[in-house]
Write a structure and sequence with these properties.
There is one protein chain. The protein is an all-alpha fold. The protein is built from five helices and two strands, in the order E-H-H-H-H-H-E. The longest helix has 29 residues. It has a two-stranded antiparallel sheet. It is globular, with a radius of gyration of 17 Å. Helix content is 64%, strand content 3%.
Length: 157
Amino acid sequence: MTDLTPGDGGTAPGGGRREQFGQIFRFALVGGANTATFFAIYLLLHPWMPYFAAYTLAFVLSMVGSFFMNTYFTYRTRPTWKKFLLFPLTNITNYVIQSAGLYALVAWAGMDTRIAPLAAAVVAIPFTFLLSRKILIPGTGGGPAPDGAARRSSSTV
């Protein structure tokens, strides 16, 4: 087992209010960088392979990059294999919420289809933030962690 040091975000699992605002800000920066990275990879791969293959590979590569940016920069914690394997849940959650939101905004609220995806994405951000925080910082969701459990991880990536 690897103990996280205080500099790795291993002290208080949730941090104070100021730290949470910092995490939200850094999460937004990572999201922007991740989107740009995804699109750049997609554009680089697109001439060499079918568009859907380029899309899929760019999505997977940017998701891996997002994992490391969020662990080291947003939440300041160490990556572990467990976190790495759970992290795609954040993307699935984001996709489901955005898709449902898009449908609701267009079909029920009559929102313009050019603007609705952006509104749905904004609605999904808090859910994605909270889930990624719960995955990447043990003990931040669903009550207090057992004594010392918030600072332990099984192995690092």
